[in-house]
Amino acid sequence: MRLLDQRGQLRQRARMAALTGWPGYQRRWGRTDQPEPSFDEPISQACTAWQFESPAFAAWASAIHHDVWPHRKLWEYCYILQCLEVYGALRAGAVGLGFGVGVEPIPSLLATRGCRVLATDLAMQAGSSVEWLNSGQHVRESRDLNRWGICDAATFAERVEYRDVDMRSIPAELRNFDFTWSSCAMEHLGSIDAAIDFFLAQFECLRPGGVAVHTTEYNVSSNARTVTGGSDVLLRRGDLEALVARTSAAGHDIRIVFATGTAPHDRRIDYLPYDEKVHLKVYYEGFVTTSFGLLAVKDPRPSG
C-alpha cells in the first residue's frame, strides 16, 4: 500500500510538471520584474521565503508563542500583525473586527497590546462550519480564542468579545472600527465573486483611515483556469487586479506586488499528504497555490 501511495504521488507530480512546466511553474503571465515582497514594509503581497528572515517576523512569531519555520499559515498571522503595526492600528484603545477567526492567536495578541476586539465566525449551526468544528478550528466559546496562552484570562475577558457573523451578510451595526482582518477566510464563501464582494463590503465596517488586512488563496500556476466555486476557491492574478481596481475606484488606498519569490523554498511544492516542513506553495485541485495578503486603507483622503 505504501508503494502504491508513493507511485500515486509520483504520477501526481508528473501531471503537475506537464501542466505547469515544473520547476518553473509560473507561466509567462506570472513572471515579473517587480521586487521581492518586503515583510518590514508590507503592501498587498504573496507569502515568500525571504520574509521569514526578517527580525520583525521572528519577533511576531515569538509574540504568538511560535517557532519560526517556513509555513504559510504562520506567515499569515505575522503578516497581519506587521501590517497593523506599520499602519498604526496596533495601539492601546484601537478597536478591531476579525472575520472567520477560528481559534487563531491574533485576538489574544491584540488584547495584550491594549486593543479591543470583536472576533466573529460563522455560527456553528450553519452548514459549512461543521467541517471547521470537526477540525478543531471553530470557536465554540470566546475563551477558545485564548487557548494559545498569550493573554492573561482577566485581560482577555475585558478586551475580547465574540459574535456569530456570516461574512456574506455583515450586520449593518458593525461600524467605525479602526481595523479589520481575516486569515484565509474569504476564499471559503462559495465563489471568487463572493470573496471580492466581501473585501469591498468590509470597508463599511471601518472608519475613514481604518486599516483592512486580509489573507486569501492565490493561484500561482495559472491566470486562466482555477477553482472558481465550492468550499475553497483560488484567486488568480486577474481576480486580484480586479479587486484592486474596484477598491481604488471606491476611494481606498491599496498597493500590490505579484512577485512570488526566488529562494529555493519558493520553488518547492508541498503535495498531499502535506509534510509541512516547507509549506509555502501547495498543490491543490490541479493548481499551485500560496497565501496572499491584501492590505488597504479606507478613504485616507482628508475631508474638506
What's the SSE blueprint?
Blueprint: H1 2-20, E1 45-46, H2 55-63, H3 72-86, E2 95-99, H4 106-112, E3 116-121, H5 129-134, H6 153-159, E4 160-164, E5 177-183, E6 190-191, H7 192-201, E7 206-219, E8 229-230, H8 237-249, E9 253-254, E10 269-270, E11 281-284, E12 287-297
Parallel strand pairs: 2-3, 2-5, 3-4, 5-7, 10-11
Antiparallel strand pairs: 1-12, 6-8, 7-12, 9-12, 11-12
Helix pairs in contact: 2-3, 7-8
Question: Which features does this protein show?
Answer:
globular; single chain; 304 residues; 10-stranded mixed sheet; 12 strands; Rossmann fold; 28% helix; two-stranded antiparallel sheet; 8 helices; alpha/beta
Description:
With 304 residues, the chain is an alpha/beta fold. It has 8 helices and 12 strands. The chain has helices at residues 2-20, 55-63, 72-86, 106-112, 129-134, 153-159, 192-201, 237-249; strands at 45-46, 95-99, 116-121, 160-164, 177-183, 190-191, 206-219, 229-230, 253-254, 269-270, 281-284, 287-297. Strand 2 (95-99), helix 4 (106-112) and strand 3 form a beta-alpha-beta unit. Helix 7 (192-201) packs parallel to helix 8 (237-249). The longest helix has 19 residues, at 2-20. The model is unreliable at 17-29 and 126-138 (pLDDT under 50).
